[in-house]
Amino acid sequence: MIELKNLTAGYKGQAIVTNISFIAYPNELTGLLGVNGAGKTTLLKTMSGLIPPIHGKCFISGKNIYHMSEKQRSQCLSFMPQRSSIIYDIPVIDVVLMGITPHLRFLETPSKKHRLLALHVLAQFNLSAFAHRSFLTLSEGQKQLVVIARNLLQNASVMLFDEPDSALDFKNRHWILNHIRELIVKSNRSGLITLHNPNDALNYCHRIIILNEGKIFHSFQPHIISVEELKETFTAIYGKITVIKHQGQWMIGRLFDESRV
Questions:
Q1: Per-residue pLDDT tens for 196-213?
Q2: Alpha-carbon distance 142 to 131, whole Å?
Q3: Distance (Å, rounded) from C-alpha 192 to C-alpha 29?
């Protein structure tokens, strides 16, 4: 599991998130919600070690990640950003094989076995035909799927996802969220995912943490929260909403003032 204790983080000494404490448990996908600027991405980058904390600690299985080397951290934690930073010509399969790098010895290169594993992961995403194409020729949605495949090959016990559905169409968005949820549960991992759509968080996440102005506003489990509590919580963040639970799934929608239309 991954545990945050009084984590304060930001840039150039300016705090964006303040005194964040929570636990993301094994076999659970924890959703991180909040409006733009609430600090979701900053928090994930700090948890992954990409930016140093201003104060506080982050533990994976009792070990402080800020005392680990980059290689050690990558062996137990993977992070998927909103957008890929790859801007050079490289085959898709080599992008996926980047996920195996933390497990290689110094100067060791991926083996035939690793390449077969990469092809297997690509097949899970129906991307086998793109294995030897340039990554740069793919659509943004396809690139997103390839980067997720890379994270799966990394095989970390804690997986962080920053809006992995942002470039995906309706069908692929739900497919990938369901795939991530199943992966976390079946392989005994801890997952933390930032999402913009609260409906997706409610229906795919086991636990939800809401950030507001850099602090934890509320945390709850969707399967046990009441309609009244959910409505009160989300109205405080998103404005007036309506809440419906149909066939075991939550659906919320924004209420508009018709007099202002």
A1: 999 999 999 999 999 999
A2: 12
A3: 6
